Amino acid sequence: MCRATGGTVGFVPTMGALHEGHISLIEASKKENHFTLGSIFVNPTQFNNKEDLAKYPRTEVEDTEMLRKAGCDAVFIPYVSEIYPEKPYHIPEIDLNGMDEVMEGAFRPGHFKGVLQVVYILLKIVEPDVLYLGQKDFQQQAILRLLLDQQFPQIRMNTVPTYRSESGLALSSRNRRLTEEQKVQALAIYKTLLEIKSQLPSNNVSEILTQSKENLENTGLKPEYISIADQKTLSILDKVTENDRVAICIAAFAGEIRLIDNMLWPED
Ligand code: AMP
Predict the structure, then answer these.
(1) Which residue range(s) make up the domain with 14?
(2) Residue 268: what pLDDT?
(3) Quick check: CB of 111 below 6 Å from ligand 1?
(4) Residue 25 near ligand 1, beta carbon < 6 Å
(5) Residue 165 within a domain
(6) What would the mean pLDDT of 83-111 be, rounded to a whole number?
(7) What value does the mean pLDDT of the chain take?
């Protein structure tokens, strides 16, 4: 009906356990499209850790209520067998130029293969005009941009800024599993990103990152990586000049909860 009258469809894929960050994507889509579709699917193929998948929060009743209140027009909650039927979808090879081998890709083997697989299938089913993604998952949106360029040139991507709590903590479904103490610890990620940003440009990135790693460790977090990457190619940089456009990316554990966050430089 929407398409028959020339309307556009905005699509917001999620794994549920929704929060204000997800809702900001719905709001961005509602502003720019006639119809907004959300989806909730905890995609098993993108989890490299079985326990992480088993513990991933599932709150469908609250999620659908949040989507309704936000004015989302419809929600797609497929079964695993719909996305991965017996006769599987053929997923074409996407040329990623090594973008899936650094940062998240280096620490979560197979993760981006799973992400590309599920997003490819969802886009084939939904056929949206615009795909809404969060800057929170910076590497994911950079890689999915290549999927769109190579397989879905008719679909536009809109990346929505990271939604943070007043204190600066990036909202994440995984935050629900943090204790009060860990929530305070996790703030060090935000502060560290700001500190790194304030020291750019720099000829000596490794010194900055070593110090930042130490600062995170002193708060009780266990950093997995702190990297500065070119925004487009995701090449890891050891110096940053005035002409660079970079993303500062951190993954760190608070207890057993793995958190990621990033900031863009020169501007966010
Ligand atoms: P997820 O449910 O974690 O797979 O996230 C679904 C979408 O919401 C992805 O495009 C995320 O990047 C985005 N998202 C998650 N957290 C935030 C946030 N705090 N601010 C903005 N977007 C977010």
Answers:
(1) 3-160
(2) 60
(3) no
(4) yes
(5) no
(6) 96
(7) 96
